[in-house]
Design a protein that fits this description.
Elements: E1 3-13, E2 18-22, H1 28-34, E3 36-40, E4 46-57, E5 60-65, H2 71-77, E6 81-85, H3 99-102, E7 106-109, E8 114-122, E9 129-133, E10 137-141, E11 147-151, E12 156-159
Parallel strand pairs: 7-12
Antiparallel strand pairs: 1-2, 1-6, 2-5, 3-4, 3-6, 4-5, 7-8, 8-9, 9-10, 11-12
């Protein structure tokens, strides 16, 4: 059993113990199917939570947990992470993966060069961005033009890299040949 972080508890919603979730890959229906979660606070403390209800509202998910019935109790959950056993997650569907499943995949250019490993995925307003770390950090838009294939069994992502996407080695504190510090 591996606990997967699904969302950070944002702020309380109303006075009766509901809270909003920040950036979850699951909708209200999927969260209800999981039902049992682990909450992990900033200090590392943990607590079991049973979901009583979830609903979408204005682009976010609002949830209610058993035993959390007041604003003060909901406020204590704020900033903690909602985790679930990976075996309880619903199948994302054919040709789809959860972000956490891709972290650590080898990233290879369409020319066959190993660029590094997928370290993070940044969500943006337009599309996700893959953060690849190897000899250098490369940011790759997660769109079909750049992400050519994902092989789940080989744990490999094939990408197209355009000139300029790979930056030069970052400057160091060493002086340049003419004695200037970069």
């Amino acid at each position: 059993m591996a606990l997967i972080p699904l969302a950070q508890i944002a702020r309380p919603h109303g006075l009766k113990g509901e809270v909003t979730l920040g950036g979850t890959p699951l909708d209200a229906r999927a969260l209800c199917a999981i039902r049992r979660f682990t909450w992990r606070g900033r200090d590392g403390s943990e607590r079991s939570l049973t979901l009583l209800g979830a609903r979408g509202a204005a682009g976010r998910v609002i949830v209610r947990f058993e035993g959390v019935t007041a604003l003060e109790e909901a406020t204590r959950l704020r900033g903690g992470w909602l985790l679930a056993d990976d075996a309880r997650l619903p199948d994302p569907g054919p040709g789809v993966a959860y972000r956490f499943q891709l972290i650590g995949f080898e990233v290879v250019s369409d020319e066959g060069r190993v660029l590094g490993q997928l370290a993070e995925i940044w969500g943006t307003g337009a599309h996700d961005v893959l953060v690849v770390r190897g000899a250098q950090e490369i940011l790759i838009p997660s769109v079909p033009e750049f992400v050519k294939s994902v092989d789940m069994s080989a744990r490999r992502i094939l990408v197209k890299v355009l000139p300029g996407m790979e930056s030069a080695t970052p400057p160091t504190d060493a002086a340049t040949e003419d004695g200037r510090t970069p």
